[in-house]
Design goal:
The model has no long low-confidence stretch (mean pLDDT about 95). The two termini are about 25 Å apart. The chain has helices at about 20-35, 60-75, 90-95; strands spanning about 10-15, 40-45, 55-60, 80-85, 100. With about 110 residues, it is of the alpha+beta class.
């Protein structure tokens, strides 16, 4: 069994498109203010394994315990993909991901 003390943090990726970019920006900025999480850039292109435009929120394990339920209630139809940061990027994305909304196919080839 894997131990949770290997989790150094979490990423939550908020997905959006041209029609929902401002909704996503507002959600991410609000989240950063409320929870003190680190907000990344608002990418208007697919980045890394992510199949849509996205913005990353970086959280500590203690922040994530409050962040995920809040995002579940306040994502307003946006898709959110969250995963732990253990150092094994492939497993973190492929095996340990959490979807809020419709799950999408990630491009995991970047991890090989």
């Amino acid at each position: 069994m894997k131990q949770i003390d290997t989790i150094r943090g979490y990423h939550a990726h908020v997905y959006f498109d041209a029609q929902s970019v401002e909704k996503a920006r507002t959600l991410c900025e609000t989240t950063a203010t409320l929870f003190g999480v680190k907000m990344g850039r608002v990418h208007k292109q697919a980045v890394g394994p992510h199949p849509m435009w996205s913005c990353q929120l970086g959280a500590t394990p203690s922040q994530f315990s409050q962040l995920l339920p809040w995002l579940a209630l306040n994502r307003d139809g946006l898709i959110v993909f969250a995963h732990p940061e253990t150092g094994n990027h492939l497993e973190d994305h492929r095996d340990h991901g959490i979807w809020l909304g419709t799950g999408l196919d990630l491009d995991l080839s970047i991890f090989s």
